[in-house]
Amino acid sequence: MKLNINIKGKKRIIEIKEELGKVIIKIGKKEFSFKSLNDKKGDISVAQTNIPKKTSKKEIKAPIAGTITKIFIKEKQTFRKNQKIVSLSAMKMENEIISDFQGTIKEILVKEDQKVQEGDILVTLK
User: Fold this and answer.
1) 26, 45, 74, 94: which could join 15 in a potential S-S bond, CB 3.0 to 4.6 Å?
2) Are 122 and 97 in contact (CB under 8 A)?
């Protein structure tokens, strides 16, 4: 499936496909791969992704635009590698943002049901 969308005033083509239990979303030259879990109706209901590698160890940013549906951590909490940080709903998929390093939460900058844009800072770290 290909979609023409407008992101921050720039026209983009998004390509979405599912293969071998994965959902692949391609935006321009960037490609995001998600593990897909299907609900009883056959719709893709949950996807999981890691925080993009360019994220610094001082903050965790939203990899895509969407709505925060669940926050799994608390301020001052220590988290470990591969721990769920937040769940973000986008394009009818629930994306669990998973940490690819360990650290301590300094401040949570989002709330449940808050809309975020790609690159928005979700939490800052000590």
Assistant:
1) 26
2) yes
Give the structural domain span for 14: 2-125
CATH number of domain containing 41: 2.40.50.100
Amino acid at 41: K
Per-residue HEC secondary structure of the chain comes to CEEEEEECCEEEEEEEEEECCEEEEEECCEEEEEEEEECCCCCEEEEEEECCCCCCCCEEECCCCEEEEEECCCCCCEECCCCEEEEEEECCEEEEEECCCCEEEEEECCCCCCEECCCCEEEEEC
Digit-by-digit pLDDT tens for the chain (126 residues) are: 777 777 677 777 788 877 777 777 787 777 777 766 655 555 544 455 544 444 456 888 888 899 999 999 999 999 988 899 999 998 888 888 888 788 899 999 999 999 999 889 999 988
Residue 71 sits at φ, ψ, to 5 deg, of -115, 120
